[in-house]
User: Fold these one by one.
Assistant:
Number 1:
Amino acid sequence: MKLKIQNISFSYKSEDILKNISFEIKKGDLVAVLGKNGAGKSTLLKTIAKFLIPKSGSVYCGDTDLFKLPKKEFVKKLSYVSQKPIPNELNVFEMLLLGRRSYFKFKPSKKDIEEVEKVIKKLNLEKIKLKPTLTLSGGELQKVAIARAIIQKSDIILLDEPTNNLDIKNQIEVLKMLKSLGKTSILVLHDINLALRFCDKFIFMKEGKIAYEGDKSIITSKVIKDIYEIEVDICYCGDTPVILPK
Ligand SMILES: Nc1ncnc2c1ncn2[C@@H]1O[C@H](COP(=O)(O)OP(=O)(O)OP(=O)(O)O)[C@@H](O)[C@H]1O
Ligand SMILES: [Mg+2]
């Protein structure tokens, strides 16, 4: 089902941060949200994920108004990984099991435990399975946060800088794995080349608005200059553009 973000505006007190944002995503597309620090990318994700209440706007998944869904139903539709995952004294296994909370009443079922084991294997988390999340490295914690979003089995996944703290192998593993899930995903990324390699659609934000959106053909040196105020060359590796700063 299509995800439709319609006329989202958000303000912190009197400061307008998101200004009438609208866009649509085809089912199964991976969308990269790009832009300078402070452009409003995290605020946009937090608003769609209902962590912030917008001044106006709506989010539809097909005909379902996501803002009107009760929490238990909402988390089955949409999962969100914040830019700064917060660790606690729970170990990795327990933290992941909590990601299945909307599927069980009092105690997890065999299926919930199996799902946790599956994601642990998929993301190579076996070695840290019993470690308290407070003791994890930045990259390990990032992978656990992503695993927890996956285990929620939602139709839509929002990830704020999911490759933060990850080494290049883990960055690629995580993005390949997200792509293989075939879910509608919105990713905030700073690495444009990584985005170009894995994403289907690109949204550039500037001062709380969408400045450019489309497929990889919109990414030109003029657009990069307008957004980031830097000069770049664009080379091609097959039909994938590669950004090279001058
Ligand atoms: N709690 C808050 N109170 C007031 N202003 C805030 C708050 N959180 C964020 N802002 C402001 O909102 C604007 C957008 O912030 P946001 O975190 O969405 O940017 P971003 O595009 O995600 O940046 P980055 O790439 O650095 O993560 C910034 O100017 C920021 O200072
Ligand atoms: Mg951010």
Note: The chain has one domain: 3-245.
Number 2:
Amino acid sequence: MDEKIAVVGLGNAGLPLAAVIADSGIEVTGVDINSERCDLINRGINPLKEEPGLDELIGKYGGRSFKATADIKNASSCNTFIVIVPLFIDRDYNPDFMILESAIKGIGSVLKPGDLVVLETTVPPGTTDNLARAWLEETSGMEASQFSLAYSPERIMTGYSISRFREFPKIVGGTDEESGKKAFAVYSRFVKSLNMVSSARVAEFIKVVEGCYRDANIALANELFKISDNLGIDFYEAREYANHQYCHIHLPSTGVGGHCIPVYPWFLIKEMERREKFDDARLLRTSRELNDEMIEFCAEKIMLNCLKIDKPLKDIAICISGLSYRRGVKEIHHSRNLALARLLVEKGLKVYAWDELLGKTGVENLGLRYLEPEKADLAFDTSGLKFGSSSKFAGKEKMSKTSEGPVCRC
Ligand SMILES: NC(=O)c1ccc[n+]([C@@H]2O[C@H](COP(=O)([O-])OP(=O)(O)OC[C@H]3O[C@@H](n4cnc5c(N)ncnc54)[C@H](O)[C@@H]3O)[C@@H](O)[C@H]2O)c1
């Protein structure tokens, strides 16, 4: 039988995935509740302009071997269903499964015996085995033994999706041996470097711990930065020579933004809380808190630097330069620079912001005033946390040597 794959969720991660699958010669049906996005894709127009390489693939396959639809029923002839919708956390940091549940139940409504369902959404370990299986059984009317179910973590990074899909090793794990093998066989058709792990639960855990690793390491860099600042030691000089084969200290930052890294540690922290194993996720919780609190440290430093400017505090024009959570990505989810700007506004300071991707309208839509950094009395440049004696913060010289990316990371 010819493989036909449905990709449910055509967002930043799902759309490049669907395009890469189409590029391997497989027929793809993309399903997304955003019908405008579906129309664009079907006309060969790429809705994610910032994603290098995607224009070409959507232009080539959109509306042809890659059709998009808002109605899951149009995907009923597919035999593999890949789910890649978001999973958010609520105010208490508990996972909110609403979107995932609706997407998986939709799949259940068209699922046939022998079909394969693969979750790619980042989830707390155990979600595929427990929740997804139950939702599919409920809406398909089948028993789990009649369909295959697996998990494969999405390991792309917005802005590098196509190249990451092609170069980065991918992982699959089934809810049973058969499902794992089946998922491996299907994914082998469009993924070059593929590893199978023993279960869906292990595959889920792999993705979550990658985020935890990044968060804890960024927290360590932030803490060391504060300590070096206290001791009067140039952090960047020390870091340059401290880093070697066995030591890789990250860059300090205003914190960690985006949909991913600030969210995933909570999956494990909350699960340990549920099991009353509070101490078992202490480092993860502390890292989260430390990273989120960096804006307070930065705000204090900015205010101290304002005192060096010969103007009343309320008249000093401060510009936060760069609001998106990561350079080159037009997204502000959990942006720590945005949180910093808002914190300074709350403190009654004269705050402006600038962002090359959002532009004036985008900045103003976030309720901030727009100003180019050069016109400000004090510009907080996100390319480097460096609180020197000058009224400008940009540590560009140092950062060009150590530069490994943006400050507000995901
Ligand atoms: N973006 C990344 O860089 C990245 C990297 C690794 C992993 N991920 C993971 O990928 C998943 C999706 O993230 P994203 O960045 O693509 O999110 P996104 O917000 O960019 O896109 C989500 C898409 O899902 C659609 N959608 C919502 N509910 C739906 C439903 N019921 N049926 C069909 N479509 C629906 C939305 O309309 C939207 O187009 C998340 O779990 C995230 O953790 C993302």
Note: The chain has two domains: 4-198, 208-402.
